[in-house]
Amino acid sequence: MTALDYDDLATEYAKHRRPYPGLVEHIVERAGVTSDSTVLEVGCGTANHLAAVRRTTGARCIGVEPSAEMRKQAAEHPEELDLREGFAEELDFPEGTFDLVMSVDMIHYVREPLRYFQRAFAALKPGGHFLTVTDSDWAIRNRIPMARYFPATIEVEFARYQPVPALAGDLALAGFTDLYERMIESTYLLHEATKFEDKSHSCLHLIGDEEFAAGIAALRADLAKGPIEANQRSLALWGRRPL
After folding, report:
1. Claim: this prediction has a pTM higher than 0.85
2. What is the distance between the alpha carbons of residues 8 and 175, in angstroms, rounded to a whole number?
3. pLDDT for residue 182 is more than 90
4. What is the chain's percent helix, strand, coil content, to nearest 5?
5. Does residue 209 form part of some domain?
């Protein structure tokens, strides 16, 4: 599969990507995040979700991200964020630093999820929460407009995303308990094709040019008739470090 350079994608991510509706509220409630909490987002990208957690709660927020351009875009948020270079499998924080370790749409880039989970487990305080937000097979097959107009992305995503049961198994092996899954869903009206034309979703960089062009043409044709009902679905997979 073609490797992606996220330094090249950072500008489009910052331009088009926003926190997923309902996700930040779910995170804050489930993990009990307050102004006294310390939160780590691993693979934070442009840090939309981390900044929203900071804005909502006042928690101390640290983001780890390997891409220099993604960190540069993340630093544009008005919220105070501690942004650092690093990789998920190489987390090296003192034992018991964080109340919450989270990642959003990142786990499919991690070659050794168990190693990442073990590092995250060690970095959490006893009783601390771990969250990875990913996509299930069902969600990938039923993305609108993605699966409808760019069906080649389905197999691309199946090749990238680990099955949720496998991730849950690795969480248990790492020592996490209280495993919990929740699908975060929302619908919206799509009025224009710009974010798809700009390939602000990484999977669009991994399909053929002809498939992409055909999808854009069909999407534009349907949008010319009126807005399209679209959806956003993400699976929140939680674990907790025992007390």
Report:
1. yes
2. 37
3. yes
4. 45, 25, 35
5. no
